[in-house]
Amino acid sequence: MTSEILSLAKYLASSRPEFSLSEMKQYLSRKYEEEQLYAILKTHFFDLDLFCSPDYKCTKLKKSPLPADEVVVRELEAQFKNPGLPLRIEKLIETYIEKSCGKDWHKGETAALIRENIVKQKEEYWNGKGESRYPKIRIISYLLYHFPVYFCQYQYLLLELFKAGLLMNKMSIIDVGAGPGTITLGTLDFFRKLQDIYSRNKMDVKMNIRIGSIEHEPQNIECYKELTSNFLADVIIDEPVHSFIENTPVPEDADLIIFSNVLAELKTPPHERAVIVERIASLSKNPTLLIIEPADLDNSKALRITQHALINKTFNVYSPCSFIWGKICSGVNCWSFQEPGNIKVPGFMEKIADTTESYRYLNTDMKFSCVILRKDGLIKHTYRARGKFMALSNLKKHIKKHINVAVSVMSGNLGDENTLVFKICDGTTSIPCYAVMPAYHMTENNRVLIDAVYGDIVEIYGTLVRENKEQSSINLLITRNTIVSLAG
Ligand SMILES: C[S@@+](CC[C@H](N)C(=O)[O-])C[C@H]1O[C@@H](n2cnc3c(N)ncnc32)[C@H](O)[C@@H]1O
Prior knowledge:
By secondary structure, this protein is an alpha/beta fold. The protein has helices at 2-15, 21-25, 34-41, 70-80, 87-101, 108-124, 137-145, 147-163, 182-200, 218-229, 270-280, 297-311, 347-352, 448-451; strands at residues 18-20, 50-52, 57-60, 170-176, 208-215, 235-237, 241-242, 256-260, 288-294, 316-319, 338-342, 365-374, 402-409, 419-425, 433-438, 457-468, 473-477, 483-487. The protein has 3 domains: 2-60; 73-374, Rossmann fold (3-Layer(aba) Sandwich); 392-487, CATH 2.40.50.140.
């Protein structure tokens, strides 16, 4: 019976731009209510390129970037300005914890066990060993401690993708190493917010989003399924693929593939991780790949090695790196991360942190390394440096001289309020380079450096080159006589 309905829907979808499910009834050999037809067809709408509204009107969808009108961007930015878990998600997580550990999970012996596991997990990261009275304790610890920040930083990046026109009205998304569903839930919440904004602004935007996931840990899959199915949304969520990412069945044509905090868990060396990533994206025609990793020295550096190996395959970096001199960097010795700020402490985190040494259970600062990759050559900044600038690879020959450079700002302030320090890069050297500005030298002519967003390109005129032998790095001194302007 389903096949009769499906063939009819296929026929109608190919022969007209719009039809209603009630129209279908007259052609079918059995009597169906529209509601039944909707339920039967729901999982096929994506493949049929159809959007069917709750009043059962079906429209053919043409894949195109989601409209990012100024008013929409402004409203979305306002919603994400003070990042934190949405109340619905907070409730979802807390209900899950209560179901697993009881209503008093944040008190007495249970809380002590959870706290112990949070500390252990921070040290061993998912390797929590030993039998527990609460078999789900590793997931509970993860939800309490890691989930909120990972959720918010992903949404921060999703907003970037949206503003860049990289989110489409019809999208197949793959959440690789999905864990308890951080990325999937972040996506569901983001699209719901976006849809609400479109509706409020009377914009008729139809979306058809499908999310698949890959995960090898059965308990995580169980948690994923429970959390994502309890967040009602007009998004198709596929049954998670229970598999190792190294040999998982390759997803069919995906539009967005996210590896959030998963590559760091692989035993495979960083450059070989590129093989795994490439294989997963191999059937996708024009995907956006988003890789997010922890900001610590080892994981951050490892990401750039993987990134470089991917560039040597079929990928190009959309952001954050700009190869300003048209030369691809080696990816070696690069420690660069983003710090977009703190999130609001969720209620459940406050509860588990309600003890001595509460700081051990509070995790609120977003800090991560990431890369967005494409296969089609699309890049965020098309700016290229010309003759009047010096490539950073030449700085060693110009110590103590004043020069001009064009560089990307690849960190927030790494110094303090008296001396501001920013990592800079132009893709030509693996020697770490920094722009160093004593606060009293800040002027209207150079404060662009401070206001620059991670990855922005700036032109710096009249900066003094200094060598930091101890750190094997080079500092460019920004004084009141240095001019900094935004480029690109
Ligand atoms: C740190 S968690 C990240 C979860 C989620 N992506 C997030 O950002 O919160 C890493 C997840 O990757 C899964 N994982 C690690 N290695 C894997 C592999 N080789 N194949 C599939 N999943 C893997 C782990 O089981 C875990 O759920």
